[in-house]
């Protein structure tokens, strides 16, 4: 079938993207779903910093690639062997498909799936297939999904079935921002009730982490960012303290306010400076967690002695250490009870052909989430 998709053909074009137009909306041929795959009509797709990292070249991928991974939609057709989904089911996409067979999958850590990592790096679906073409040219898949498109064919392992009663625009966020941010708090850090938390970086993931910390009973939640609008948003969502990270004394101020630092600090910006702040404001015996994805050439360093003498713990968190089949339904249930109000993150809706302008807005940081709901 013919689909309209957002294709990236060149990385690193200059901002603003409204002028350089790195993404073109193209009519592509989408093959039908093969064994173990599904065809999904995409209903809502959110612009994420991981897309932006491919566009600006800080997370290089093979091109041309059809972007988009934080999305939701309706199953239209299932391939052979798919017995647990049927046309009409609502699904959210997950950006690391997990095979269920490799050692990390068997250990209950599907975010680290070996096959999923290979297929995501190569720009294919799980198992190596590519279903997008333009004449004789192959168009690669972004993170096994390619959701900035009216339809997508993906592995069954790239979607989780969800409740039909929740709007697609809200469901979409659960596949990336929410599982990454909330998961970092409840799975990777597994924070204790009453503990103190700092969140450095208040994009969709940071604000989701903030909501996760509130839901988990954190007693003090320090929100840190360079952007005043985001600090206001954090306060509105329930941060107890906010700090401008442009202030050269930000570390001292947070330590002073918390009597020596926080139990858990989360870095969600993917920026070395933010990681340094997160580590520095983690108290003796505390834990620093990062969900950030900086350029592979960027290095974070710290005095090694502090790990020992202060018994600090440093943890990475990918996909929020989530088991998507287990966690997404749980998080959606908390959302339904208004205990995880991720709808408050959504700020702007756009059409597919406004995507370059949308990424300019995302890069500026004025909106927590920008969602395409017209394809
Ligand atoms: Zn994402
Ligand atoms: Zn696996």
Keywords, separated by commas or semicolons:
alpha/beta, 375 residues, 2 domains, binds zinc ion, Quinone Oxidoreductase, Chain A, domain 1, globular, six-stranded parallel sheet, Rossmann fold
Q: What is the structure about, briefly put?
A:
Residues 23-372 form the Enoyl reductase (ER) domain. The protein is α/β, with parallel strands linked by helices.
Would you write up a description of this structure?
It comes from Pallidibacillus thermolactis. This is Zinc-dependent alcohol dehydrogenase family protein. The chain is an alpha/beta fold. It has two domains: 2-177 and 321-374, Quinone Oxidoreductase, Chain A, domain 1, CATH 3.90.180.10; 190-316, Rossmann fold. It is built from twelve helices and 18 strands. Strands 3, 5, 6, 9, 10, 17 and 18 form a seven-stranded mixed sheet that branches. Strands 13-12-11-14-15-16 form a six-stranded parallel sheet, sandwiched between helices. Helix 12 (355-364) links the parallel strand 17 (346-351) and strand 18. The protein starts with a strand and ends with a strand. The model has no long low-confidence stretch (mean pLDDT 96). One zinc ion (ZN) binds at residues 48, 50, 69-70, 95, 176.
């Amino acid at each position: 079938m013919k689909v309209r998709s957002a294709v990236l053909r060149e990385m690193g074009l200059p901002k603003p993207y409204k002028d350089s137009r790195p993404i073109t909306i193209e009519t592509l041929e989408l093959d039908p779903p093969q064994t173990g795959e599904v065809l999904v009509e995409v209903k809502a797709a959110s612009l994420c910093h991981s897309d932006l990292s491919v566009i600006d070249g800080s997370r290089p991928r093979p091109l041309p690639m059809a972007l988009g991974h934080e999305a939701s939609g309706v199953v239209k057709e299932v391939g052979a062997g798919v017995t647990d989904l049927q046309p009409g089911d609502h699904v959210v996409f997950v950006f690391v498909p997990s095979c269920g067979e490799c050692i990390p999958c068997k250990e209950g850590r599907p975010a680290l799936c070996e096959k999923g990592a290979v297929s995501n790096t190569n720009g294919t679906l799980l198992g190596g297939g590519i279903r997008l073409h333009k004449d004789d040219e192959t168009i690669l898949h972004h993170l096994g999904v390619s959701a900035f498109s009216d339809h997508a064919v993906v592995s069954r392992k790239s979607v989780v079935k969800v409740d039909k009663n929740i709007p697609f625009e809200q469901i979409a966020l659960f596949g990336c921002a929410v599982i990454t941010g909330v998961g970092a708090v409840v799975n990777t850090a597994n924070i204790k009730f009453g503990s103190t938390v700092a969140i450095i970086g208040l994009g969709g993931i940071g604000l989701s982490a903030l909501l996760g910390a509130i839901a988990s009973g954190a007693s003090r939640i320090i929100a840190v960012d360079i952007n005043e609008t985001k600090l206001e948003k954090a306060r509105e969502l329930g941060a107890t303290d906010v700090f401008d990270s442009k202030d050269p004394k930000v570390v001292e101020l947070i330590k002073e306010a918390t009597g020596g630092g926080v139990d858990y600090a989360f870095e969600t910006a993917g920026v070395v400076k933010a990681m340094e702040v997160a580590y520095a404001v983690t108290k003796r015996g505390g834990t620093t967690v990062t969900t950030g994805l900086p350029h592979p050439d960027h290095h974070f360093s710290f005095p090694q002695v502090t790990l020992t003498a202060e018994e600090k713990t440093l943890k990475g968190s990918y996909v929020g250490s989530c088991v998507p089949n287990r966690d997404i339904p749980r998080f959606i249930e908390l959302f339904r009870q208004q205990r995880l109000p991720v709808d408050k993150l959504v700020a702007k809706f756009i059409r597919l052909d406004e995507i370059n302008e949308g990424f300019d807005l995302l890069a500026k940081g004025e909106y927590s989430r920008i969602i395409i709901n017209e394809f």
